[in-house]
Amino acid sequence: MGLKNMWNGLLKKKWLRNLFVALVLLVLFFTLAVRTVQPRENLTFIEKGLRIAASPFQYGFKGINDSVSGFFSYFTEKEALQQENDAMKKEISQLHSQLTQMDEVRMENIRLKELLGYKDATRGQYNLQLAEIIAENNNNLQHTITLDKGSNDGVTTGMTIMNHSGLIGRITAVMPESSEVMLLPDRESAVGARVWSTREVIGVVEGDGTDSATLQMIHLPHDADIYVGDDIVTSGLDGVFPGGIHIGEVTAIEYSVTGLTKTAYLKAYVNFSRLEEVFILMNSGGGSGN
């Protein structure tokens, strides 16, 4: 009795009664709508009406479904595009690396071709052995490089190092499989030199230890026949370097304070900042040269 009275009490409240009726109708309506959407040829009058009534809801549900599907599809496509973009960036990076390596190989081939061409052209004059630079130490105190050839290859201290452009330096220390070279720009380096055209002006070329591109020819008499643009070569009179190896071009001349001597400044023919392969002159030694 108590439950029946409670139910009758609830039905007496108008808004609750209306809500209950609406829910029942809504459930019934959608149940029938679902049944009527199944493909059938013969529909009753009521089923046709329900199908017509349910069509706006079906379109609405379809729109919501499409929107939700589109929302997740957007993120799926975005992720796929991002992955594709990352893959393309990686591929571009790999291609760039390959191009860089190809360019390095091309430049190496050019250098080796020039070096080997010079070796063939001077075969009767010099006994040259090709060596690769494996380390370098260039600072204001020291300018040296280390080669991949040593005593096992017949290398000894004092041997001249050069390339097709000109004089580079001399061997100062030898190990079984490597050797150290003092470069011409080093403050401790010095080489007897002369003017190529006249072969009469004699001096000493040395580095200043600060600029690998600039050398200076010192101990020149004030009236020495030397001019800007002259080609300076080794004299062969120092007992260390053979004569006739090109050193650099005169770029400026400066007189001393007393006016008794002058100094010629040279731009070295060798680019000391871009050395990679060099020649070891195996028959080094002083001499008049060419």
Q: Can you tell me about this structure?
A:
Helices cover 38% and strands 27% of the residues. It is built from 3 helices and 12 strands. Helix 2 crosses helix 3 (45-121). The N and C termini lie far apart (135 Å). The model is unreliable at 285-290 (pLDDT under 50).
Order of helices and strands: HHHEEEEEEEEEEEE
**Average pLDDT figure:** 78
Q: Biggest sheet, strands in spatial order?
A: 1-2-5-4-3-12
The profile of the biggest β sheet is:
6 strands, antiparallel, barrel
From the N-terminal CA to the C-terminal CA, the straight-line distance is 135 Å
Shape: elongated
Count all strands and give the number: 12
Number of helices: 3
Condensed summary:
With 290 residues, the protein is α+β, with helices and mostly antiparallel strands. The chain contains three helices and twelve strands. A hairpin with a 5-residue loop joins strand 10 (246-255) and strand 11 (261-268).
Topology readout:
Blueprint (H helix, E strand, L loop, with lengths): L1 H11 L1 H23 L8 H77 L6 E11 L4 E5 L12 E3 L4 E8 L4 E5 L6 E6 L6 E6 L6 E8 L9 E4 L11 E10 L5 E8 L8 E5 L9
Antiparallel strand pairs: 1-2, 1-12, 2-5, 3-4, 3-12, 4-5, 6-7, 6-9, 7-8, 8-11, 9-10, 10-11
